[in-house]
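Example 5.3 — SDR family oxidoreductase
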Amino acid sequence: METGLKGKRALVLGASKGLGFGIAQGLAEEGARVSLASRTMGGSKAAADKIGKDVLAFICDTGKVDQVDALVKDVTGALGGVDILVLNSGGPPPGKAQGVSSDQWRQSFEAMFVNLVRIADQLLPGMIERKFGRIISVISSGVIQPIPNLAISNAIRPALVGWGKTLASEVASSGVTVNAIAPGRIATDRLKQLDAANAERTGRSVEDVAKAARAGIPAGRYGEIEEFAAAAVFLASEKASFMTGSILRVDGGQISSTT
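Solution (predicted structure tokens):
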């Protein structure tokens, strides 16, 4: 399938590893000019070097507004603009809904919502002017069906969905699409962390936790990063120009809800 991504300028957040890295790699393989960012320059450079294809590396902790603004300035200076924006923030620590401090709620909301919107707001005028733009938010299946012991994620990520759905209707006539991708259990370091936390909380082995989790997925396995990234690449492509305001699930059939 011809994606039409050759020469398109992309910025992928949280891309030193895992889902963000997979998306950055997938876009680069389709000929996009990719910039990627993560919390450390070392991590970003290592990811960019691994992908090759002249990928540019930047630093950005989405919890720090000065780094957020510097990222937008530096990337637009290097590329002349951004056509594809992938909003991917790190997952918050696992835990129950009870007992989360107000400071933790505020910090997570800033990093997982406020500053992601800040980046998008600064890049949207250029997309609208060029009559082409793609904003893709990496969320969580917890938006559809809350995940036990992930209270912060369950509470905050829906805000990004509500913002994106509202924005989608505002910019659709300008050739800009706004969508979200909800990963199920994809084989990443983050998933290993969550399985380990679940094992400790329930007194089971990590192997037993993973086995039980796979049993709840109709596909019978964890997803691969490349499979998730392929969905993001499609949403970024010209072929997806009539898809906007949607949540695309990549979960092996795990979520049984029809909505």
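Remark. The chain has a mean pLDDT of 95.
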